[in-house]
């Protein structure tokens, strides 16, 4: 089944920000579009607002005046649901309440033709549950756009338990014909993006709750070392703490309070206090006029060591050796490449990529966090025991500063910041594929386009190595056996899969 013909009218029910955005996408693609809202006059106001946005596109030379005028002529408010009777696709974008959506679609089913595709833009409710109220649930799908819909290309095309594949295909091809990037997924809590993105927020909040670092420092490490566009605290302030916490709680409850999705108590307190982020002027950060953004903790300038000894294989951090040599610091290589690697400093302290252990009983180890790209990273987080000597801390600081990095010390938090976050994202991605939620390719696409991750989970896994995420999470699970960090069976199988060239994994 192919995409809808451009002569086919499309309707959007619900004319808030998302509804207007979806209507604009369909309109610019060339469809006649009808707008309906239960509140009298709202559909007409929405049509005017969309027209004003089309004017701005003309001003920016992204749309011709002729195309704008033609689009305006195709955009019509509808006073009643009966005015949508000839539509071939209706997308709902009303309040996130199951009973409201079910009643709306029951009414629509009595109005539209038998072949009309019915779609919900829900981000948190079950597509199966909404469609369960219909006489013909096979033509019901989820079309989850991301806000702002005219700018963000991703659309999650969600098949409910009863969705007919022909209608899911029509929805998928229509979204693609509209210039969007569709990904197909099964009806699961959070779909793709909101399911797999939970650790990005959860681990940042967990580090904060453990007093490992303050929000500004955690955000800086996620951006400047992890390569994420925004840190978790600034992003949730932008989204709205109430909105983000509501999605987290919805996914957690939908998974029967699975500990992997447990909401943050610190975020709950923020919501209870009314500090919802930018929209209230106060969230994790102060957004009031003239407020200064807090600076991340950054170590003072130290002298680099004259040399380091590279022992074993540094794995994902191997790039550091070339950077150290380029900085004019001597590198002596020793040890078995099959063993876990480290950088031995003149003080005798070892620099080790975080492995899920703590430094509490290891004053001879300074851990450093994972970086997306050690050459491009501008900040590196370090963690050490309270018993580690000042000389060793100075050497570790000076070494990374010599490589052009700002250095941040955080508390003795297992897995640090970037590493534990990335490992959990990878784990949830493998678990989702194993449970039939989506393909690896669609998950990578969804996470890059939906939340602007620098790499998709599977791209990251291939870069880090097959066993890296499993080994880190297994160690974290040993220290916290609650189940939060327990590697999924899918990740276990992946890490222990046989390599045809090496034989069975040990």
* Average pLDDT score: 95
> Roughly what percent helix?
40-55%
- The proportion of strand residues reads 5-15%
The assigned CATH architecture of the largest domain is Orthogonal Bundle
Terminal residue distance: 48 Å
Write down how many β-strands occur, each being a DSSP E stretch of 2 or more residues. 15
Question: Would you write up a description of this structure?
Answer:
An eight-stranded mixed β-sheet has the order 3-2-1-4-5-6-7-8, sandwiched between helices. A seven-stranded mixed β-sheet has the order 10-9-11-12-13-14-15, sandwiched between helices. The relative contact order is 0.09. α10 (232-239) crosses α11 and α15 crosses α19. The model has no long low-confidence stretch (mean pLDDT 95). It has helices at 17-29, 42-59, 65-74, 98-109, 127-131, 165-177, 193-196, 198-209, 215-224, 232-239, 241-254, 265-272, 319-326, 390-402, 418-434, 440-450, 457-464, 468-479, 489-495, and strands spanning 10-13, 33-36, 75-77, 89-92, 117-120, 140-145, 154-159, 181-186, 307-311, 330-334, 342-344, 350-353, 365-368, 379-384, 406-409. It has three domains: 10-187, Rossmann fold; 194-292 and 417-506, N-(1-d-carboxylethyl)-l-norvaline Dehydrogenase, domain 2 (Orthogonal Bundle); 307-409, no CATH class. By secondary structure, the chain is an alpha/beta fold. It is elongated.
SSE layout:
Layout: E1 10-13, H1 17-29, E2 33-36, H2 42-59, H3 65-74, E3 75-77, E4 89-92, H4 98-109, E5 117-120, H5 127-131, E6 140-145, E7 154-159, H6 165-177, E8 181-186, H7 193-196, H8 198-209, H9 215-224, H10 232-239, H11 241-254, H12 265-272, E9 307-311, H13 319-326, E10 330-334, E11 342-344, E12 350-353, E13 365-368, E14 379-384, H14 390-402, E15 406-409, H15 418-434, H16 440-450, H17 457-464, H18 468-479, H19 489-495
Parallel strand pairs: 1-2, 1-4, 2-3, 4-5, 5-6, 7-8, 9-10, 12-13, 14-15
Antiparallel strand pairs: 6-7, 9-11, 11-12, 13-14
Helix pairs in contact: 1-2, 8-15, 10-11, 15-17, 15-18, 15-19
